[in-house]
Specification:
mainly beta, 2 helices, globular
């Protein structure tokens, strides 16, 4: 199985209650350029009678770095909790609080010489302000894109991610977009 593509970033604001997690309407932050998910695991060992008696390698958290083809104030405002006027002006305030969001994407794969489409969904992510870096145009044009990093957390029931693979991209998109505007019951 080879990963050969990345498309269809979607996010929706998370509301977490005792009855479950609810995601707002699916929004598209831009076209997918890159995505990197790094997980952190607990790593604890208990030795007794000179042997390993217990160990824990459970999920502790992680980070996601999303590369998108454009940055617009509407998207950044929604992801970072900034105020955006109808005219498109974004005001950053030190008291702004970024909301938790659900974040999904579609990874195109080649499996036994056939294309497959895997939806990868992170249940709870909080993004932080991206660094701003610009350069002047030199002798040749160089494209630069925006990367925004978020912290991955768990829902109250401990779940942090879900995935499913489909035979068609249409099925994958329908599944991904169906994750938003819905409630996921907690156990």
């Amino acid at each position: 199985m080879a990963k050969i593509g990345l498309t269809n970033f979607r996010f929706g604001v998370l509301t977490e209650k005792a009855s479950g997690a609810t995601y707002g309407e699916a929004q598209t932050p831009g076209k997918a350029v890159s995505c990197s998910v790094t997980t952190e695991n607990n790593d604890a060992s208990l030795y007794a009678d000179d042997t390993l008696a217990e160990s824990d390698n459970s999920f502790a958290g992680g980070t996601v770095t999303m590369g998108i083809d454009r940055e617009d104030n509407k998207t950044l405002g929604a992801l970072l909790g900034h105020e955006v006027t109808e005219e498109g002006e974004m005001t950053r305030n030190a008291n702004d609080v970024a909301p938790y969001v659900g974040l999904g994407r579609i990874v195109t794969k080649m499996v036994d010489n056939a294309l497959k489409y895997k939806v990868e969904f992170l249940n709870k992510v909080k993004f932080s302000e991206p660094s701003q870096e610009e350069t002047t145009k030199g002798e040749s044009t160089e494209f630069a894109t925006t990367e925004i990093e978020g912290t991955i957390a768990t829902l109250a029931d401990g779940s942090w991610s879900k995935s499913q693979t489909f035979d068609t991209k249409t099925e994958a998109i329908a599944y991904l977009e169906g994750l938003f505007g819905t409630t996921t019951p907690t156990a």
